[in-house]
Design brief:
The protein contains 10 helices and 29 strands. A hairpin with a 2-residue loop joins strand 23 (305-308) and strand 24 (311-312). It has 499 residues and is α/β, with parallel strands linked by helices.
Length: 499
């Protein structure tokens, strides 16, 4: 994940996790005449970093931030998954391609925000569904296509019930390995989502005192987005099983976190730190520490305790130095502030911030951010043009895995892996015309912004008792901006209409 212009050494998985290098050898004394952040930057520039931050993975060399995965390729933030390709944010997935925010799914293609789904494609915000496609907001459904807002239904096309024979005929005509028919079906799904489907104003379910969006089974959440099984969190994103925390991005199974990113696996009392895992406790201003306690300003420590700037101390000396360092940082204005942007090892356009707050190069540099000008990938080496690729997967031979293609969007080269082609043929899916990054960014059309607007319910159905023949007057906070075309209902009107 690090470009070649980074100053620190980058190790492969086996070397970084091995014991042939000593993180304490980079330790240094605190200089109380200088800013702490300056000293941390000097340490950061020499301590080795792991090229890809994975743990206990098998045959998944080209994934990042993966745990307990097997046979996965170009997957990111995946846990206990197998045979997945081009997947982002997945828990317990098997045989998934080009999907995001999936929880316990199998044989899925181009699905977004699904739970417990099987053998489906282009499902959006759906749960417990099988053999369905090009649909939005389905719960406990099977054999549905071009449908929305259905509950416990079987054999539905455009929200109307059909016979199994009729459904099979329509399915076979639409769900094919043809590129042209797939493009047409995708456009129909987008039209369904924007023009016909009802949208619940906010997906806050089984939660109490929650403000934000996509919050499930949680309590006391404020300005939190995509959270599950959590409590007492303010200002967070992608929160899993986390308590008593604030300003958090991507924590899981941890407590008492502040100003952190990606703190996982039973961590406690972590401040201004990132990528600390497996039982870290009482860690301040540190990165990539594993199962370590009482560490301050340290990088790459494993099973350690009582360290400052990677130097070990006994308990009493550590506590004294820590208190003195906090007082020093308070005088310099550093204490209580997260790392300044110049300490980030990444450029602005190398991070996911570009997905939420995209800016141009000049603006980024003006604000003090780094910018990466070098492009990743190769260009102009294609051996097969897209025009010469057969439209239907049934007509594509195994030899295509030896060819190099060019993305129709960004022109970057890409190729198919044998595992990928086997899944396309198995699921009767056309091969992609775009590289995996362009496909990922195209899929973000389904992700709502991390922001709230105050809006009113648009329902004017006269049979609703709550507004007695008039337009509903309920107001709410929602992540659907006022200028979006979707049909947004309050909770009462939405529940009246789902079928």
């Amino acid at each position: 994940m690090y470009s070649t212009d980074k100053p620190f050494p980058v190790y492969c998985y086996a070397c970084w996790w091995g014991d042939k290098w000593d993180p304490y050898s980079y330790g240094r004394n605190i200089d109380f005449s200088r800013l702490f952040f300056e000293q941390y930057l000097e340490l950061q520039n020499v301590v080795p970093r792991v090229g890809l931050f994975n743990s206990n993975t098998v045959n998944s060399e080209y994934s990042n931030y993966a745990l307990d995965d097997k046979n996965c390729y170009l997957c990111f933030r995946t846990v206990v998954s197998e045979n997945c390709l081009y997947v982002y944010y997945c828990y317990k997935g098997k045989d998934l391609i080009d999907s995001s925010y999936t929880h316990t799914g199998e044989l899925l293609y181009e699905c977004f925000d699904t739970r417990n789904c099987y053998n489906s494609r282009y499902l959006i915000d759906s749960e417990n569904c099988i053999d369905s496609a090009y649909s939005y907001d389905l719960k406990n459904c099977s054999h549905c296509i071009f449908s929305s807002n259905l509950r416990n239904k079987q054999y539905y096309v455009r929200n109307k019930q059909v016979t199994p024979e009729e459904f099979k005929k329509i399915w076979n005509d639409v769900v094919t390995g043809s590129r042209l028919k797939t493009k047409d079906a995708k456009q129909k799904l987008i039209a369904l989502y924007r023009e016909k489907a009802m949208h619940r104003y906010n997906m806050i379910l089984k939660s109490t005192n929650a403000r934000g969006a996509k919050i499930v089974n949680s309590k006391n959440m404020h300005e939190v987005y995509y959270a599950t099984n959590s409590e007492n969190v303010r200002y967070g994103d992608d929160i899993e099983s986390t308590r008593d925390s604030m300003d958090a991005k991507g924590p899981e199974d941890s407590e008492r976190l502040y100003e952190i990113c990606s703190i996982d696996n039973a961590c406690y009392n972590i401040f201004f730190s990132n990528f600390c895992q497996k039982g870290c406790r009482d860690v301040f201003y540190s990165s990539f520490c594993i199962n370590s306690q009482n560490c301050f300003g340290s990088i790459g420590l494993k099973n350690s305790e009582y360290c400052i700037l990677n130097k070990r101390y006994d308990k009493e000396e550590y506590l004294k130095l820590k208190d003195r360092l906090i007082k020093h940082m308070t005088r310099t204005g550093e204490w209580g502030e997260n790392f300044p942007v110049n300490l980030s090892p990444f450029a602005y356009n190398e991070t996911v911030v570009m997905e939420f707050f995209p800016i141009e190069r000049d603006e980024a540099l003006k604000k003090g951010y780094k910018w990466q000008d070098a492009k990743t990938g190769t260009y102009g080496q294609e051996t097969l043009s897209q025009e010469d690729v057969p439209d239907d997967i049934k007509n594509i031979s195994e030899s295509i895995v030896n060819e190099i293609l060019a993305c129709i969007e960004c022109k970057r080269n890409y190729r198919l892996t044998p595992q990928e082609l086997e899944l396309y043929k198995r699921l009767n899916i056309c091969i992609p015309e775009k590289c995996y990054e362009c496909r990922y960014h195209e899929r973000l059309v389904w992700r709502l912004p991390r922001k709230l607007w105050t809006r009113g319910c648009v329902c004017d159905i006269k049979t609703h008792e709550i507004h007695a023949g008039d337009k509903c007057k309920n107001e709410f906070e929602t992540s659907y901006a006022p200028d979006r075309p979707e049909i947004i209902y309050c909770e009462e009107c939405y529940l009246k209409e789902v079928v």
